[in-house]
Amino acid sequence: MSVAGTLALAAVESLAVAGSGSVDLLSTGLTTTLVGEAADWEFVFRNADYLGVGALLTVVLTVASILLGFVVGFPAGAVEVYGDGLLKRTVSAVGIVLRGTPIVVILIVMYFVVGVPQINLGVATVSSAMTAGILGLGLRSAAYQSQIFRATLSSVDDGQLEAGRSIGLSRFEAVRYVVVPQALRRSIPGFQNEFTIVLKDTSIVFAIGLAELLTRGYDLFSEQTTAVLEVILFISAIYFVLTFTTNRALDRLGDHYAIPEGESA
Amino acid sequence: MSDGDFLRVTDVSKWYGDEQVLHDVSFEMDRGDVTVLIGPSGSGKSTMLRCVNRLAEAQEGSIRLDGEEVLSPDLDVNDLRREVGMVFQGFNLFAHLTAVGNVALGPRRVLGLSADEARERAEAQLERVGLADQLDSYPAELSGGQQQRVGIARALAMKPKLMLFDEPTSALDPELIGEVLEVMHGLVDEGMTMLVVTHEMSFAREVADEIVFLDEGHVIERGPPDQLFERPEKERTGRFLERIASHD
User: Fold this and answer.
1) Residues near B51 by Cβ (< 8 Å), separated by ≥ 6?
2) Is ipTM over 0.90?
3) I need a surface site. Which of A72, A220, B102, B248 has the fewest CB within 10 A?
4) Residue B81: which of A168, A178, A185 has the nearest Cβ?
């Protein structure tokens, strides 16, 4: 929304500056500015499959990065809450570095400095740019997700852990069976944010040459410069549908696992 | 007086940092005894109770339970705790589990019962505390008194040989205290060995075999309820009992 909105506003402003013409001309111009020329929409729809491939790449990058972020970030958050010594210090330090580094830098380091290899999955080969993209976005997401889980794990009352220990559960078991189920429920709102952020940040993989949704949009309006607004509106709509549906799905998940009469998840 | 062949607490001392909260506390229990720890808040009675199942660590002294040294560094605390049930002042029910889920967790995960066996045992224990009609309720859906009865059932489901009660009625509205005390009365009648921290003096008087009065971490006086309530030997005991009585 913000990109399209800003562009539209800029266009209206420039029109107003130039606008010495009649009110009629201004209103026609406004309509054109906000919805675009029919010919340019036709251009967008003609290239919908090109953008569709980009959208698919965006989805794959998001899902893979979020999963990697969860698999690494959840244990990292648990170590920050329950761990001690060198392990805990190492995990927090790595997290601070990852959260403090711009995502472009992380991606460039992964691709050009670390030089991750391509991965052969049998059915398909994941290019080294793709691997670097997933690793970069995934590890950064892990650093953020670790903080979501650190917060929710430590938000569960100590009495819960103590009660678990009192019936003879080990510390690990008490965390696993008593604290984690409650912490995960409380993690859903933070996780929704993280999901949305990762989805939109996938566009930054253009820095390592991956043509996801936004990059492909950029390619298109470079080709037909009158269609900037139409292309931007179109891909914004795709981003919106993706974020809206996944957020609603996570809302549903939260409702499904909500504790009756308890705090809402 | 007990000869302490079941639980023998000897000269237990504990510090939090530089502050000593227990000073050479000693008392004994036989199997089937009910001992009530009383004393002003901050006197160390809850801490003493928690040392028995090692939720708190005593630094000095000895606690022998059924011939085994509880304070031994070699002891597996999880083995100890599966035999010593605990009921908390704040209930501490697992918020994400139903009443049955709360009670079944220990049998399932600690004792290794099948899901069906664990549920069966949980249902039986909830029936025992009068909650057969609330099996699938979540803690937040239950009254305080019901929650505490689930807490008792959760501890009982492990078939403990000793039950620890840490101010089980202190967080309850007055009208809900009765139902919890009733369940505890039932346990006394069944011969359960119970170590209880409470401010419910009439309950203590009715069921206790021995009362231990603690103040500032010291055992000031102990003895059978009649003696302690009617003819306290120490002035401090008398003053405490008067203060409590004036609130009743």
Assistant:
1) B12, B14, B22, B57, B58, B63, B70, B71
2) yes
3) B248
4) A168
